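FAQ: What does the model actually see?

It sees only this:
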Amino acid sequence: MKIVSRRNVSAIALVAVVVLFIATGVWTVRQDEEGIVLRFGRVARVVQPGIQFTLPWPVESLERVNVREVREISVGYRRSEDDPTRTRNEAEWLTGDTNILDIRLIVTYRVADAVKNLTRYEGDESRYLLRKCAESVLTERVAGMGVDELLAGGSNEIRRAVSDRVARLMERLETGIEIESVNVESIRPPLTVDQSFKEIQSALNEVENDRYRADSAVRRLRQKALSDAESEISRANSYRKDIVSEAQGKADAFRQLVAAYKRSPETVRTRLVREWRARVYANNPTINLGKGEDEPGLRVLTK
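And it is asked to produce this:
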């Protein structure tokens, strides 16, 4: 009987060891996960997706971390757990010109370093730290901008500042978190003064439209003045060229006349007198007092 009992005990012990090994030493790591093997609570190695084996508990254990899932946190508000479409404000931000705005952000991230995220922070500590860092950076950036600048187009600046600064903080704090994106859901005045802000914004938009129309009118008038000036300059240049050309022609003719006069003074003098008489008689009615039209005589101007 004792031999049989010992065999039974050995068999039971062997079965217990096998069951313990299967229960605490065989693991399945999914494709979107990394497995962190802990030996007495310290990181022993990192295993990839697939079936993995460890020493039975309590010597080793395996923690699985999803490194591909894109997660998100909200900044400035919280969604209701019962109804995700319902939200509540958690904070309001003071601008550089002492106005208050309701700003809402969504920060998406993923766990890039499973070892750091698992060993340095417990539970949702890294997620909580990420939210606080985003709130701190947002507070600092909004305090450096005016309300008009934020409402007119501050989304891009806030998105860039929060994304860059928070990413550096996460790396410095060794959270293992990598920022995927920062989306600005809304920038608006608090509901209690929303209508007053809308009226002010409408007035500012009207002023901006008037300024744009005035600038457009100035540009049109300036363009017309420049066009008219160019036309006047073109006509003046053309007139100058004509006058210069005419003067040069007269000067050339006079030089030719001087040269001809030097060669034959009497002939030139007679021709000049005849030309002068012809011009005078052609422009003024006259009466011939001689014997005939071609005979020498006296011609009297009637004007």
